[in-house]
Amino acid sequence: MKILVPVKRVVDYNVKVRVKADQSGVELANIKMSMNPFDEISVEEAIKLKEAGVATEIIAVSIGVTQCQETLRTALAMGADRAILVETSAEIQPLAVAKLLKAICEKESPQMVILGKQAIDDDSNQTGQMLAALLNWPQATFASKVTVTAGVAEVMREIDGGMETVEIKLPAIITTDLRLNTPRYATLPNIMKAKKKPMDVMTPEALGVDVTPRLKTLKVVEPPKRKGGVMVADVAALVDKLKNEAKVI
Amino acid sequence: MTILILAEHDSQQLKPGVTNAVAAAQKIGGEIHLLVAGNGCSGAASAAAQVAGVTKVLVVDAAHYAGGAPENLAPLIVGLASHYSHVLASASAYGKNVMPRVAALLDVAQISEIISVESPDTFVRPIYAGNAFATVQSADAIKVITVRATGFDAVAATGGSAAIENIAAGVDTEQSKVLRQELSKSDRPELVAAKRIVSGGRGMGDGDKYRQLLEPLADKLGAALGASRAAVDAGFVPNDYQVGQTGKIVAPELYIAVGISGAIQHLAGMKDSKVIVAINKDPEAPIFQVADYGLVGDLFTLVPQLTAAI
């Protein structure tokens, strides 16, 4: 079975972003970019399924600027077999991403698409569920364990009160949560090998998808800063502050 | 304008977050309806009818809505959506699972985790782990929105008297089924609704020490227990304790962070708390930059002292 793994190029998770002075967005020039951490978990899970003999081919997909090729090469170095870049410099919102991925699914006919549950830049947490809707496939979001047997996936999901295990019929969408696995590092020989793996480049137009944004960002601002607090010397001073100053106990 | 809110419930009671979504709907303006979908959920429907500001409760009671399967819920909501200007849900695991599916079927954008309503089509939402706030405007005919509970003060859960209307169930897609749930059992308040939270990080050392030190403190304060991602990943506590960008977003009156360094992903989940206390041995820990009261020292000495002193 084929697995499709979408990967997004985002600001590295260690970077604290700054808002641009003109409030048009956040400063992205000369900022370290990496694969969205949840997407690394998706790639790892697909590789594990291939190593277990469940999957036969892993296709990594990215949507965005030319530099997304680097993100795809990382996925290939981890163990994906080939890559597809939908190249565009336009702003692509989650609904458009889902439509582009649907078009690719129709060409490639994967049995499973594994996506990160959210991207750490826009924090939307939408694309997997939207893709499932557009394909009319079942979904298992926030996955913490995946087992595949004969046309069915059993997925343990992280929910607000604990864990839930669902059974979904394939083809299906899975979105990954933090504790599904620990992504492997790409080794140097695999990074070299990844350079020779195939990468197709196409455009949204070629896929026949209208990617016009539906949401207009009017402004982006810094959140209100918390006022600096005080250090207290000991527990007695802390309790005094909580009782008499903050009045919360 | 009429607004539909998908109400999360456990068949008997509404989940925390629903009354915050109603508050957001009141900011948008217009009539407010709640949708209660489940199996044997008349108790939850009665609870929904009492929520202040709600005029109608739509109830659909059928076996295939028991587990909250998004494959069944989304088409149901889409069938109702043409009567509404906005469809809302709390940004809980339940709401996040279902609502993007609704939005895609309606061919509209979803506006995730709003924290403020500027106008009926313009909303503020945090991006980049809350390090920036984006004001976004939707051009879609139906606005599909998830509401971050900490952004809106909950309306009263009682005092209303909405009409209850039973509606016909949609089809069972049979695409998914819930096999089992393992829910954390606790007498403590729910994390997202708690007025006080005691939260532990990697500095707790292990799960036993986490429980030995933090449970007595939480008991004394009547607080919920939370954790950083590091503590969850290390297996000290279950996943549903996690506070942060991708865990639970909380804003209690008092948040006590013990042995938590304060990664931006953790701060994203708790920095709207009214009063933050940090206890950490490292005076340089970033948690102190957001703490109202910082105490540097050995938490294994300080936490028992604190428990004894309050």
Protein described:
The complex is a heterodimer of chains A (249) and B (310). The radius of gyration of chain A is 21 Å and the shape is globular. In chain A, helix 3 packs across helix 4. In chain A, strand 4, helix 2 and strand 5 form a beta-alpha-beta unit. Chain A has a single domain, classed as HUPs (Rossmann fold). In chain A, strands 9-8-7-10-6-1-4-5-11 form a 9-stranded mixed beta sheet, sandwiched between helices. Chain A has a two-stranded antiparallel ribbon with strand order 2-3. Chain A has 249 residues and is an alpha/beta fold. Chain A has 6 helices and 13 strands. With 310 residues, chain B is of the alpha/beta class. In chain B, 28% of the residues lie in helices and 28% in strands. Chain B contains 9 helices and 16 strands. A 7-stranded parallel beta sheet of chain B has the order 5-9-4-1-2-3-10, sandwiched between helices. A 5-stranded parallel beta sheet of chain B has the order 13-12-14-15-16. Chain B has a 3-stranded antiparallel beta sheet with strand order 6-7-8. In chain B, helix 3 packs across helix 4 and helix 5 packs parallel to helix 9. The radius of gyration of chain B is 20 Å and the shape is globular. The model of chain B has no long low-confidence stretch (mean pLDDT 97). Classes of the chains: A alpha/beta (249), B alpha/beta (310). Chains A and B meet through helix 3, helix 4, strand 7, strand 8 and strand 9 of A and helix 3, helix 4, strand 5, strand 7 and strand 8 of B.
